[in-house]
Fold each of these.
Amino acid sequence: MQIGVLGGGQLGRMMALAGYPLGLKFRFLESVQDAPVDDLADRVTARYDDEAALTRFAGGLDIITYEFENVPASSAKFLARSHAFFPPPDVLDVAQDRLTQKNFFKKLGIPTAPFAQVDSRADLDAAVQQHGLPGILKTRRSGYDGKGQMLLKSADDVERAWKTLGNSPLIFEGFVPFEREVSIVAARSRTGETAFYPLVENHHREGILRLTLAPAPNLTKELQAEAERCARRIFDDFNYVGVLTIEMFQHGGRLLVNEMATRVHNSGHWSIEGSETSQFENHLRAGLGLPLGLSHALHPSAMINLIGTTPPSEKILAIPGAHLHLYGKSAAPGRKLGHVTIVEPDTARLMEKVRQVQALL
Amino acid sequence: MQIGVLGGGQLGRMMALAGYPLGLKFRFLESVQDAPVDDLADRVTARYDDEAALTRFAGGLDIITYEFENVPASSAKFLARSHAFFPPPDVLDVAQDRLTQKNFFKKLGIPTAPFAQVDSRADLDAAVQQHGLPGILKTRRSGYDGKGQMLLKSADDVERAWKTLGNSPLIFEGFVPFEREVSIVAARSRTGETAFYPLVENHHREGILRLTLAPAPNLTKELQAEAERCARRIFDDFNYVGVLTIEMFQHGGRLLVNEMATRVHNSGHWSIEGSETSQFENHLRAGLGLPLGLSHALHPSAMINLIGTTPPSEKILAIPGAHLHLYGKSAAPGRKLGHVTIVEPDTARLMEKVRQVQALL
């Protein structure tokens, strides 16, 4: 089986590492030079909207997926005409536009923070008027890792944000109090089988994920069930195939959905060591219609991102049980270069090891 | 870091899969077309004794190792002149000759079955006379998976074995009663640090490993300590670097060493899921002088080899917790095409799943 993957970043790299033991072969399409998949798989270098290149890329592939959420939906649809493609390309129309995504959640009865479409300065003022400050102004498209969004606390912030972002279609999101950010990674096979990883707790800084604790500490059955219900509604509506990630805010016993990523996700990396089956393997199994693998947490895990620079490997590997994952990328501020996972039955010892890793960053 | 590996089979493939997360790059030297590493790494195709090709292969490499034990010692020594090379090339002189190996064990005070050098029919008769039948006649070089050896039970067998094997330098090994075959995988870093995996129990059929149970059921501390003492003596004598495997017979509370493999080993594959750190990762860490990773068994594990043919993947993956490893090889009788590992705290359930896998073979 030859798998095609749009995007050749670390998610693709880890997908290939998970897929080789299943006897799968990989070909990636990536637009930039020096991608994380270069060392370990075939790749075609081209723009994602170059249909001639897409055709060349697709030749001989059995099935195609993506690891990069900003793949043009039109390219996904183009490939889906000739090949099995997952997740279904329609999903991208929804996922790539924050406003469409929020309206989609509303349609499915999935609770979100209050939001308003902002196409003009007048829309922005009306949204601030209606929902109050603080709030967040976001571009509807192409934001990631905190890019394309600004926190509004004051009238001055509103003015500044409009000047910075006002050229793009926007969405205003009202502020909701929350205790923590959590996410769920779930998989649905083309056979309809589903698997849900436990909710995890995510810690961001400067808009970038720094730490994931899996399962989320003090996770209740009710909260897990609520997250799974959200995922199921999305799965059913799309007849979804593959891994889906939903990021949520927890407030009391309630979840408000923030956004979804229709792909494997940074907050699921712990599953490589922390679960029987990694999110990457289950994504591939889902696409191929193979039975999904067990997705419970074997023990409490922590995943610490390596951002901007990486400590010397020998220092990380000197921490007993620390699993190092480097992505083969050159250092740059804010760039995700790798991660470290620790799986440890004793929670106090887990957090002590997390601190040991963090002390190296 | 660019790692060179002599041999491009499944051991190399799993070594690369273990090394990519450490940020390592790989280049393989392999003499045959269609090798398991082809999909996922650079490779040079050449004979192992082609010095021009070795030089081409070695260009730009930081360190070189092997995954194939019949690499010519002269080639290893040639590469070691210009590059860091592990395990030390001298090891191959000993490991590749069963008689030299047995004499080496004797020198170190490591117990073995009785043995005798056989260079003539008269030698063979003398050996049979001295040690009695049954016994095993083996070629001193190039045997693996039961090839190049014959069991002698009768005078007829002696005659037949001499006709078949008599053209090569031979070793006669006296029969020793034993309850089971076990092996230990151990690693020694270039810093001198050591790590020992638990002794495992191995089940062969037709000379080929079929099943490994890790740790060996009813493993005692004393037996583990005895196996580690053997490994330490070999480590110290060679100033060894990398993973070493020692295959042994257990009789009562005693171990008799059968042979060593100076490389990662089929009986260590369980460690990919069954230990914090796989034998492949620890081999690389050892060569690079990185701290060795934890090598205890997380839970009881079983590794079942897929020989000759592979069942449909969906049948294996339908067994909860079954980890499939396919090597990308074409089917052929007696060929190792993959393996399945199960890690399961409950031993009865582990054995039930083993039977489920075996029922598919």
Amino acid sequence: MVIHGGAGTILRQNMTPEMEKAYIDTLTIALRTGYQILARGGSSLDAVEATIRVMEDSPLFNAGKGAVFTSEGTNELDASIMDGRTLGAGAVAALQHVRNPISLARLVMEKSPHVMMVGSGAEEFAKSQGVKLVSPHYFWTERRWKAYEAAKARADSGKSGAVPGEERKLGTVGAVALDKAGNLAAGTSTGGTNMKRFGRVGDSPIIGAGTYANNLSCAVSGTGDGEFFIRNNVAADICARLRYSGVSIQQAADDVVMKELVAQHGEGGVIAMDRKGNIATPFNSAGMYRGWVTSDGKITVKIYKEN
Amino acid sequence: MVIHGGAGTILRQNMTPEMEKAYIDTLTIALRTGYQILARGGSSLDAVEATIRVMEDSPLFNAGKGAVFTSEGTNELDASIMDGRTLGAGAVAALQHVRNPISLARLVMEKSPHVMMVGSGAEEFAKSQGVKLVSPHYFWTERRWKAYEAAKARADSGKSGAVPGEERKLGTVGAVALDKAGNLAAGTSTGGTNMKRFGRVGDSPIIGAGTYANNLSCAVSGTGDGEFFIRNNVAADICARLRYSGVSIQQAADDVVMKELVAQHGEGGVIAMDRKGNIATPFNSAGMYRGWVTSDGKITVKIYKEN
């Protein structure tokens, strides 16, 4: 199984040893959670959901608790999940009261005839499924609020463009997994971009863009400039290259992330795994929180380009 | 240029000569509108938008005026458009006050940094762009309201499942075009499914599912069971087969619509055009409102399987 916790301008000089340790520890716990499910014969879908829940519950990542704020000072959460065995898929967007969006995406997949539900309708469905809604205050963290205030002050003073530095857009989380039965699954969860406006929906809840899984090819979760991921149909296109061109997962992922996205100045990265368990984790940004666990339980976690 | 006005259980025995003529006339006007733009050297994007506006403004189709009703008795409109030259794309969902969703999708593409906007945020953006919002009453038609009342009565009486017959889900509209400069474009617009619930979003506003265009491969617009179109990434997958497998547009479209979707019991059809102007219009339902115009201005319109 492979996970990511977002790609972007992650530089060692901007990181304290404490922050670095916190990220590594949480990514390790997330991987161990998924591994334990897979090791005892659980499904890749269960592993993906449980692993992403760990990251949603952590304030470190821009998903669930710790999500960034919209221009209105609210949190709007998106997620999607896909089962490579059945092509079953679920996606939710613009949630304001759901603690674990990835689990609601799975409920949409399994308990509704639909694939995608948004806004208050999605939350009404959540209630009908017995999901306890949380107060919007649950998602609040001081770090993201300060980032919002800084971005808002900048916007109010008439300066355009994004806030420089680490807080711009970071921390979408995702996971891909292969289980003992040979089934692939993928999932992605995000709080969107800081100061986002106008009911913007990024790539994370878009099946084919931020998330795709098909046992015939591969499983992919992406993170980065969502608009570029949608236009390039990134997750599904990597799978299509495997399926129709017969290239390796590494080449397919590199061709999309390191060539096509770079040519368009679209920043980001993906995690990808084929049905034999080969993985690729290319990113064209300074860093990407990422890690993987092999079938023997060995966990690797990396943050920067060099490690 | 090729257009569709929805696929489904369209049978000659359920159609009056007057209805048939109305559909043929409107599809012809829509095609002529697009052709005139292309013939004078206009862009495929302009042709797609103008053609879809004709169908949105017609009460015959489930898009714009004449949209079906949600379970709450409201209209919620979705649309998307894509430029094969730049991969620029715009998508809107869950609109309640926008007369021409396809034009707002184009504004999202050209006047915002985003690809997808939903709900009141999308309408706020519309206002900021000078789009005049309309009363929800504008979308009301007696035919769709009766279909809603019939479906609601059926639901309230405890019967499950869809209402039989023509009104179930019909009339999503779409267009693909190739202009003199060799650029492809695609667009799709819909009112969703009758009695839809829970903020459901179908495939029409999902770039890659209902709409895709890439000058390297083809342009596609789909109509049918939206959930199957999302899971199978239908529009982009047809383009990927052309690009990576090198098959013809007819084979790529047939393999997806007549094999993969049929195997999954997903009903619907697509219109597709490659960069040489070859077209394919497969559908696995009883009928699909469809038509095309060739570069010499010859217009063909069909409804049923046989013609």
